[in-house]
């Protein structure tokens, strides 16, 4: 027999493995048993290998077969569990001739196996388990990707994440970092006395953000519902109800384009803090973010796309109006309507659409000349009122609001503001948004009478913030596509008939 099993076309190998499966069943071997038995984790065994080897007690390991090297009456295999990988030595004299032949002829790379034996070190100083007995835990009917194309194809990697995790070691590290990030966020807010809550994903109005929603239908109620674009409205209702500090790690849905920074389904933390304003929140957030970066990476500095970013506070604060004036030589206060502004921003290389309002035009101006030009982390503050239907006005102007966004490497990772608690002002803002919807803006916020009513009962001064978990993990793991940090990103459906 050869050192390595000959590489076979996947469809051919599937049929071969089906034949092996039938042979396993005929041999009265259960190819998919429910029970496993006691086992040790490979990482623990390797960590305590010298002590365990000296004791020479039998121990049991489980894992997926990653490699098989046959040598006549014996073979070396590598198995891998969630904690690590180890070599095992299966010898005919140790396990029995019948059992050994069954392994050699019926087991494949990809199968899950249960091994019991004693530890030893080979002549090549490889730490190894000498197998005394073994059993099949799960028969794999398809070869692992490394046997046929290496799984470097991006489309397949995202569509079949399970194979991506098997084939590419670095992928698991990304999602370990994601898990650590979410745990840090939750612990940080819990320690500050915030209450974690859950708010509806199915909502009768899609409020809380300027975004186009997904629509679904509830048959029993015979009504259309929306997947939430943000948990904001419900969280602020809890502030009205007497909570002073609430947060939600929320799955949100926006029916928008897909690119390196956008997935229709994404995760964010939103929190609301009574008796705070956006200035206080800026100080809080830069300290929170810097501590998170230090905890996850071990340093305040990260490298992203071959550039270094320093998260030590304070972050620069760039005023929206003043930065546009400085970078574009344009005083936006001089152009009060979209009709006045349209020609000016088109001169600056931005092609407009008929349904764009003044706020949309200013937002595109900001994205092109500030967000994409400044490395960060930095805050862009005091946005035009048209962009912020839920933010409180600045004290000396009706045209700008108490809002900030945190930007790093062109990504908006956080959005925050002092919340409107004046029901009359909120009513007027919603009416303006409703007019935009009537004019064709599908992302404009609908009028929310229930929320206006809630504000009439009184809400204390409050600041709120939303931070995109996915984008933060992109930065922490140096990933340039948001799909790399979402285990199962949204993809166009594919005919899977011949996908194997």
UniProtKB/TrEMBL annotation:
Mg(2+) 2 binds at residue 412. Keywords: Aminoacyl-tRNA synthetase, ATP-binding, Cytoplasm, Ligase, Magnesium, Metal-binding, Nucleotide-binding, Protein biosynthesis. Residues 175-493 form the Aminoacyl-transfer RNA synthetases class-II family profile domain. PROSITE patterns: AA_TRNA_LIGASE_II. Its main location: cytoplasm. Mg(2+) 1 binds at residue 412. GO terms for cellular component: cytosol. Belongs to the class-II aminoacyl-tRNA synthetase family. Homodimer. This is Lysine--tRNA ligase.
